[in-house]
Amino acid sequence: MFIDIANLKKSYRTGEVVTEVLKGIGMKLDKGEIGVILGPSGSGKSTLMNILGGIDRGDSGQVLVDGIEINQLNDGKLTDYRRGDIGFVFQFYNLVPNLTVGENIEVVSNISKSPLNTDEVLAAVGMQDKKHRFPRELSGGEQQRVSIARAIVKNPKLLLCDEPTGALDYDTSRSILQLLQQVNKKYGTTILMITHNAAIAAMANRVFRLRSGEIVEETVNQTVVPAERIEW
Ligand SMILES: Nc1ncnc2c1ncn2[C@@H]1O[C@H](COP(=O)(O)OP(=O)(O)OP(=O)(O)O)[C@@H](O)[C@H]1O
Prior knowledge:
The protein has about 230 residues and is of the alpha/beta class. It is built from six helices and ten strands; from the N terminus they run βββαββαβαααβαβββ. It has a single domain (about 5-230), classed as 3-Layer(aba) Sandwich (Rossmann fold). The chain has helices spanning about 45-50, 75-85, 100-110, 120-125, 140-150, 170-185, and strands spanning about 5-15, 15-30, 35-40, 60-65, 70, 85-90, 160, 190-195, 205-210, 215-220. Adenosine-5'-triphosphate binds near residues 39, 43 and 44.
């Protein structure tokens, strides 16, 4: 099992008030699979993703990723894990505005242990012709393609996507989802994606429904639907 989470709990304290955000989460995902986390606003999706990505820590429970118990790593090791093993894609692309597309990718590949080739990755996301453009000269969908290229150039073990199509129109969203499925096939990258959109669940191997900090339903899709055939 590539991701194996058991009884994960997380609370936040604001002044005197303690809010239990994750109440004993258990979930598993195999290597090379696509997982989708569905759930309403405030259900704990980003908190779970942040713990898996080494941005935050759980209070208790097990978070095994590729055999590493990340909840037990010291700060330095957790940073290495986050930098080396995890690719992030967010709703807003967070590209560096005064760097070109190629440079945005190279700042990551330059500090990676075994990066993929920048031109190869740009070709994989269909952006090879825009290498010398600046982010402001690109559409939202194109910027998201670049942010996916930047996430995969380090050849991450796990790609975490938080509402990757949240800011995009229908057709562009579908092309980005298609791209994520292609990345999953081409590089064998395990992908975990947060979304509000239940229709997107059809493209995943496993679907986890989160409500108030608990997984209330897990579905295994026997047939994974290609993103270009998903409609909503
Ligand atoms: N750093 C923090 N300090 C205090 N409370 C927090 C913190 N981060 C998250 N929370 C609270 O934890 C709960 C879950 O937040 P989280 O961002 O994980 O939800 P979400 O499912 O991702 O929501 P959304 O879909 O709106 O992004 C919310 O009630 C939020 O206010």
